[in-house]
Glycosyltransferase involved in cell wall biosynthesis (Cohnella phaseoli), 364 residues
Amino acid sequence: MVTISLCMIVRNEEEVLARCLDSVHDLVDEIVIVDTGSTDQTKEIAGRYTDRIFDYEWTDHFADARNYSFSFATKDYVMWLDADDYFRDKDREKLKKLKEELDQEVDSVVMEYHLAFDDCGNPLAMSRRNRIVKRSRQFRWHNPIHEYLFVEGNCYLTDIAVSHGRVHENTGRNLRILEQIAEREGEVTGRDVFYYANELSDAGRFAEAAEQYQRFLAEPVDYFEDNLTACARLSACYHQLGLFDLKLTALLQSMVYELPRADFCCSIGQCFLERDDFAKAIYWFKLALTQDRPPDHHFGVLHLISWTWLPHLQLCICYGMTGELELAYEHNEKALSYLPNDANLLQNKAKIEQALGIGGAETP
């Protein structure tokens, strides 16, 4: 059986750190906590789980802090988590089994990262991360913010999921760091342009964000998943700015980088639905239903509802608006197969059944 060091960087995480460590402490052989300047009870909470707690003077460089945490690992493999991450019970069992069976020729274990959930606990959005890496390979983190772990060699793809339960709101820290880089170097460059655009968008500075997304999309493609996300977020900026034709153009640009995907099909369909152009909206929502989810090696963010209930709900709306109630009912039923207790879908069902004279409604 392999051994695993869990390495984390933390700061003022008293609200979530215990949840994280409760979910994993008995599945790893060592816990390394690097504190970057907590002023709450974070270090005291960490002390319940490990005595390997180290201080790090914060330098606005996440990769340096993560590399520092990795430097204290002593086991075969190194796993990283953020304090607001945790493992659900089913994923704990999978991780336990993985640890027992992992081939030591594996250099990196890729896990799913579930970013948001519906009321039933089903993931709404996910990406993937190199989550456990062989210590002897000495893989390094790169980038001051939105840091990434550069990995080569034998990667093992799993369906084990780390769940993200964010508590802290956007503090503007990342935007501040990027603006300091822009001031020092004249402008941000490369992949940082994409991250800068994201931070501007999150701060509600949509016109500036749109300009940076355009800069990023004008450059050669390094990671096509970033380009897809840039198209989606650029369209959202144009929506906020009331530039609806440009919103549609940004979504269509995604097909420069990838074949039509269900999430983009749904977004394009929504553009036409907002214009009451139901024929075109129906076309795109139906196209979404024909698309397979991207393969497991895809690391970008996937909005999973576009491959499940969302296109059915939107088709229900479209067909309801065009008076095709049988088709509206059919697609509402399909959406209900994913969300059987959803109040809006159940209300749709009752209204359509009443209009059609079926179900609970009395018939002559």
In short: The chain is about 45% helix and 15% strand. The chain has a mean pLDDT of 94.
